[in-house]
Amino acid sequence: MLKITAYSSKISYRPGEEVDVKVSGQGIDAYNATLKRIVQGDINPDGPGYKEDEVACEIGGPFNAREQKIVTGSYGRVLPRAPLSVEGPVSIAALIWPTTPGSSRQTIISVGSGSGLRLSLDDRGCATLEAISDGRRIAEASTDVPCRGKTWYAVVGWFNPATNELRVEQKPLKTFPSIRDSGAGTGRVSAALEVDWSEIAFAAVLDGGRPTLCYNGKIEAPFVCSGQPSADSVVQHLTGKRRIGTVIAEWDFSTDIANDTFSDRGPHSLDGTLFNLPHRAVAGHAWDGSVYKWVERPEQYAAVHFHDDDLYNAGWENDFTFQLPEDLRSGVYAAHLTSADGDSEYYLVFAVRAAKTARKNSVVFVMPTASYMAYANHRLGIDVSETEIGAGQLLQIDRHHVFLQENPQYGLSLYEVHSDGSGVFYSSRLRPVLDIQPKVQGFIGGLGSNIWQFNADTHILGFFESRGIGYDVLTDEDLEAEGVEALAEYKVVVTGSHPEYTSTKMLDAYRDYSDGGGRIMYLGGNGFYWRITYNEKLPGVIECRRSESGIRGWEPGTGNYYHQFSGELGGLWRRIGRAPQEVFGVGMTAQGFDLSSPYIKTEDAKNPRAAFIFEGVDGDIIGDFGLNGGGAAGNEIDRTDFTLGTPPNALVVASSRLHTDIYLMTPEDLLDPTPTWSGTQSDLIRSDLTFFETSSGGAVFSTGSIAWAAAMAWSGYDNNVARITENVLRRFMSPERF
């Protein structure tokens, strides 16, 4: 069991800045903290050796441990700015599209923090109106008819304080012969009920500010009115066909869709806030297929899809802060937390950029933090039954995998689905992310070290250190914030092993840097594949909608293809019209997680333009070894494609062959499902080692393989893959134009 977990509000710092650390300790009394520079995170005995350096830094401690909880579930909250007085009979209503009716009691609208009314679905999925006193249900009215899943209903509750009567009704917006899913019911409160209007919540009941009795599904157009209009009148009001004149509040979820607030069109301006990032920019009851961009017709996207397992910010309190040394060199660092008994540890990893006024190194490593976040706390091995088949090997279970199974509240990755089966659109780092640590192992990192994302990238850091090459580090978030200016002072930009997730601004930065004469070394595979978006008002989170094609475990639902945060079309950069081949020469072609293959030199390797690449490298076979599948080309691999934008002057100096039949073509290339789409059958399944110059004097070198970095690290970085990488890097560092 992991006894310590932690996170910080940022993932990128500069020397001299303060780092805030939020910690939860379970089963320990105290812990210590030290600052470590992470050099090599792979603990494979056949690898180059784990390496971290302790850095002198006044942190303090030991610190007393305490457990901090995480509570999931998205919801909306309204806190009236002035006391709200509602006299006489009252009606509350909403349109709903429930996704898990009958799984548990779920709240649609909750009025009052202690005493009030709740419009809910009971544990059978029937609409109910509950009377609440001192937090307890004292009476309810139920329709006694379950709602059907993924079906639009109007649900209405009425309360008359003069008679203490409760009434509730549910009406499907579309009816079918022999399907009975409408109903009504009544109930009565035995004593006078004082409704507390100081707090109104949607999709949950708030207990001390924490969500309980969470709802799964869409809610649209919740409203409150005085009096007791008929259900038909309420339905007409909710669907925009006729207005009721006694409205107290009518909330419009089609406002401020890009962010986390919504407005009230009623007389009291009871605007509200959404918490834990429910899905927005999703099709509402009125969506008719005539538009796909929610910005064009937001009224057709006036629904919010809530989930009981949504999580944005764990909301932990700071346990300590410390100041980074003013003279700290750029690199990857961690606050290393260890229990007093030495039985448990946690690495809180972050980047330290070069000081603004410092002289920069020639090389900068772009830490692909967006991709780390996409996979954050993923459970692919245990929750996805076909992982062992796809990897061609038995699963290796690391202790953090077990912890995540036992603690689902630590949140989901972009590779999971919610409890109602809908895809996860958002992933946040404002929670402990157990994968972003050295020493951890993965599920699909190939035979050998079996490491993935962050820990696999430490093979690149270890390479720099082994060759004595000075380097700086920045993150995807820095690229998003500053664009090409973040890269402008560097001669060479080096990517991680798997920079899969990229925003528009990030891709623009790489393009503009290359166009301006910069040199790029793309040392990975499956890079620049999915579009993501950030949100300036909601730090630390990315959004991804896997629209229409690509390797994906879910699809966003028809009509839900455009991102909430930016209004941009989601999906593959290739489909959006900016295939990675345009900037990097190669793009994703296949994946397989068993064995990696070597590269074999091509005729282009004899071109004098490529001579510097192979200085000191004998023979035609490159990388028939490695810590990831036993070869340099593997896991996820990229190919050139001149029809997709590979520059016509590009040299493919080596290509991989002989991949196994576990390697399968990507869906975007598979137009006709025939038996010719596997590794031994398709010519498209290959990794192309690619080089080209740009017209501005720069150049690009792309390996097109996740496994390349793990081959670099083979035999202590003494091999032809590491030699080629060093040859290219030193030439790219040279001021001589290409």
What would your notes on this structure say?
The chain is mainly beta. 12% of the residues lie in helices and 31% in strands. The strands form eight sheets. The protein has a 16-stranded antiparallel β-sheet that branches. Strand 17 and strand 18 form a beta hairpin. Helix 7 (476-482) crosses helix 8. The mean pLDDT is 95.
What's a quick, concise take on this entry?
With 738 residues, the protein is mostly beta strands.
Keywords, separated by commas or semicolons:
single chain, 16-stranded antiparallel beta sheet, about 750 residues, mainly beta
Mean pLDDT: 95
Helix content range of the residues, please?
10-25%
Instruction: Give the class from helix and strand content and strand pairing.
Output: mainly beta
Bulk shape: elongated
Q: What is the number of helices?
A: 12
Largest sheet, if any?
16 strands, antiparallel
Strand content: 25-35%
* Number of DSSP E strands: 43
Radius of gyration: 28 Å
Low-confidence stretches: none
Distance between the termini: 54 Å
Question: Strands, helices and their partners?
Answer:
Elements: E1 4-7, E2 12-13, E3 18-25, E4 30-40, E5 51-55, E6 63-64, E7 75-78, E8 90-98, E9 106-111, E10 116-121, E11 126-133, E12 136-146, E13 153-160, E14 165-172, E15 183-188, E16 200-202, E17 205-207, E18 210-212, E19 217-226, H1 231-238, E20 247-252, E21 261-264, E22 272-275, E23 279-282, E24 303-306, E25 320-323, E26 331-339, E27 345-352, E28 363-367, H2 369-374, H3 380-383, H4 387-391, H5 399-406, E29 426-428, H6 454-466, E30 471-475, H7 476-482, E31 492-494, E32 501-503, H8 504-515, E33 519-522, E34 530-532, E35 541-543, H9 573-576, H10 581-584, E36 586-597, E37 599-601, E38 621-622, E39 633-640, E40 651-656, E41 664-665, E42 688-693, E43 699-702, H11 708-712, H12 720-733
Parallel strand pairs: 2-27, 28-30, 28-31, 31-33, 32-34, 33-43
Antiparallel strand pairs: 1-3, 3-25, 4-5, 4-6, 4-26, 7-16, 7-22, 8-13, 8-19, 9-10, 9-16, 10-11, 11-12, 13-14, 14-15, 17-18, 19-20, 19-24, 20-21, 21-22, 23-24, 26-27, 29-35, 36-39, 36-41, 37-38, 37-40, 40-42, 42-43
Helix pairs in contact: 7-8
